[in-house]
Amino acid sequence: MPLGKLERHLDGARAYFAPGDEAFIRAIAERASGLPALAVGATHGDFQRRNLRWEETAGTLCVIDFERSEDGPAVRDFVRLSDAWHGRPDLYEAVADGYGRPLTPAEEEHLAVLSVLDAVSGIQYGMAHGDLELAERGRRTLARLRSTSPP
What we know:
This is Aminoglycoside phosphotransferase domain-containing protein. This protein starts with 5 loop residues before the first helix and ends with a helix. It has one domain. It has helices spanning 6-13, 21-31, 82-85, 89-99, 105-128, 132-148, and strands at residues 40-43, 52-55, 60-63, 70-73. The radius of gyration is 16 Å and the shape is globular. The protein is mainly alpha-helical. It has six helices and four strands, in the order ααββββαααα. The strands form two sheets. It has a two-stranded antiparallel sheet. The chain has a two-stranded antiparallel sheet with strand order 2-3.
């Protein structure tokens, strides 16, 4: 788990948190050390809708923007998509169908931790660089996780 940068990101994002966010973030991050290891493979690292292009004439989905690619657990690539399927079981089922199976409980736990870390990073980076859309996505993700994931 990429916990090494957590304190630096917290320092840059703390002023933009809702009450209780930091305690929740720390509680979720502490769970990371007790999670079972997942299989590692190639991941995109920034797999989200804006990096997907549908080529209508060819009937092909193209993926762009690979600068964050690295080896990691497959759920790493679901972090930025998971907001889209929240409250939409039909979309989650479509993702699971494309993935070949639903996520395991261990993968769900890893996804929660990775999503929290990504949210904090997005808030910190977004506010520091004037990318308010990125910062807002991070705040929405934290709010969603706080409502669905016990610390």
